[in-house]
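Reading group handout, session on sequence-to-structure problems. Before we discuss, look at one worked example. The prompt was deliberately terse, the way you'd type it at a terminal:

> structure Delta-aminolevulinic acid dehydratase

The input record follows.
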Amino acid sequence: MNKFSRTMNSPATRRSVDEITGSRRLRRTRKADWSRRLVRENHLTVDDLIWPLFLMEGENRQEPLEAMPGVMRHTVDHAVRQAERAARLGIPAIATFPNIDPARRDETGSHSLDPDNLINRATRAIKEAVPEIGIITDVALDPFTSHGHDGILRDGEIVNDETVAQIAVAAVGQAAAGADIIAPSDMMDGRIGAIRDALDQNGFQNVAIMSYATKFASAFYGPYREAIGTGGLLKGDKKTYYIDPANSDEALREAEQDLLEGADMLIVKPGLPYLDIVHRLKDTFAVPTFAYQVSGEYAMIKAAAANGWIDGERAMVESLLAFKRAGCDGILTYFAPEMAELL
Ligand code: PBG
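And the output record:
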């Protein structure tokens, strides 16, 4: 054996030189910050963020939400200022959710059809002041119904087709107010096709549909229901229309159906507990896919951080990056302004 043969890559010499790892040391690329940055596979940018904003009636006011530290409900004039802030930070789009005056809520959510309801007034005001930001509006009926369900309640049943007919009209009203993207979160069957037809027939061919295609019957929506004032109203649960958290194939069927009906983009909701769904959807359909890091997910991180149990900022960054790694093109998150400031 000559001197040179010692350095050759024969299994025998490898074992003697580096017995423990066999020279396979993955830590080499992790040894320094520059090197970790060099091999980093996924990045979060401000372009990945969609900011959900809560609306309320009144003027020049905002109200803190107890279970969502740092999140407020805003009157329309205030929401305009938040939209300006979002645009300044480079956030591409906001998603609005109204807390409707209880006196305006009824069995069928009829106020959703009013061109001058809170959500439509906010859209018009924001569009006028901040035309460069995208506005995403939800057409589900839950903020407008006296029972907090996403559809029309008749004899103890959330009726599908009548609800679809109504939300298609509400969607046209939202588009007329200036919404760029309609995002139906109600999980009624056939809603995407009906909304697409209604938009097209009314000249809104350029208004997109971001479908909450896979929305699960989740416990993580608690703080949101408080924010829009449906928490105390909701009778029963939403299991007859949202997907069972045990199911994954069914989520694929929902997404496929919505895409066939004309959805431009998909949302998975909630977020972190459903990253497997994000991954399957992205792998299967290769369309723009988003996750909604919902109110309960935000509340958990904030609450643990407030107790000093976790580092809140690092948990925020890590959770948002996890969405990118799973295949998300973007994330609806209450952390949007905080994250954008950090970026
Ligand atoms: C209902 C709707 C929900 C959310 C947004 N729209 C869920 C619900 O209350 O059933 C949840 C958002 C969140 O928790 O952050 N259409």
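Points for discussion. First: The two ends are 57 Å apart (CA to CA). Second: DSSP finds twelve helices and twelve strands in the chain.
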